[in-house]
Amino acid sequence: MLSPKKTKFRKAFKGRIHGIATSGYEVAFGAYGLKALEPERITARQIESARRAITRHMRRVGKVWIRIFPDVPVSRKPAEVRMGSGKGSPEFWVCRVKPGKIMFELDGVSLDVAKKAFELAAEKLPIKTKFVTRGVS
Predict the structure, then answer these.
(1) What is the homologous superfamily of the domain 32-76+88-133 according to CATH?
(2) Can you tell me whether residue 52 is helix, strand or coil?
(3) Any idea where the domains of the chain sit in the sequence?
(4) Which of 98, 99, 96 is nearest to 14 (CA)?
């Protein structure tokens, strides 16, 4: 699964996801893209699950680009622990995704295959998504 090799700080604030994507909102590498329509935190497991769904449907033909990276640590305290005594240890990694962000891109496959692959990937993600092509948002 995806995670950073090294970070400046071990634990991060939760933060809020405001506004729309100001970068990565156009299909740049492939011919087709999967665009986020809602703000949400996407976990490394969800990204990997969506990637697997795409590559399996494509039968390893064509190329996939993952345009998001989980760089925010999410900490959790163990179950049934009393309040206080500091913040919990980092449990997993997430990526904050804004509406309009292109999350995955595809090239080297037909339109039908790309649409179906992104439908399967969208089922693995916790947000509404939209299929887009190069030049058309």
Answers:
(1) Ribosomal protein L16/L10 (3.90.1170.10)
(2) helix
(3) 32-76+88-133
(4) 96
Query: 53 with 123: CB under 8 angstroms?
Result: yes
* Two structure tokens written together for 4: 């950073």
In sequence order, which residues have a C-beta less than 8 Å from that of residue 51 and are 6 or more positions away?
A: 64, 66, 104, 121
- Residues 135 and 28 sit within 8 Å (Cβ to Cβ): no
Give the position of tokens 């390893």: 60
Residue-wise pLDDT for 12-53, tens only, equals 999 999 999 999 999 999 999 999 999 999 999 999 999 999
Using the 8-state DSSP alphabet, how is residue 77 labeled?
Answer: P
User: Which of 99, 46, 41, 31 has the alpha carbon at shortest distance from 71?
Assistant: 41
Select from 37, 6, 8 the least CA-distant residue to 20.
Answer: 37
Give the number of other CB atoms < 10 A from CB of residue 106: 25
The C-alpha atoms of residue 88 and residue 72 are separated, in whole angstroms, by: 15
pTM above 0.90, yes or no: yes
Based on its alpha-carbon atoms, the radius of gyration of the chain, rounded to whole angstroms, reads: 17
Q: How far apart are CA 34 and CA 5, in angstroms?
A: 26
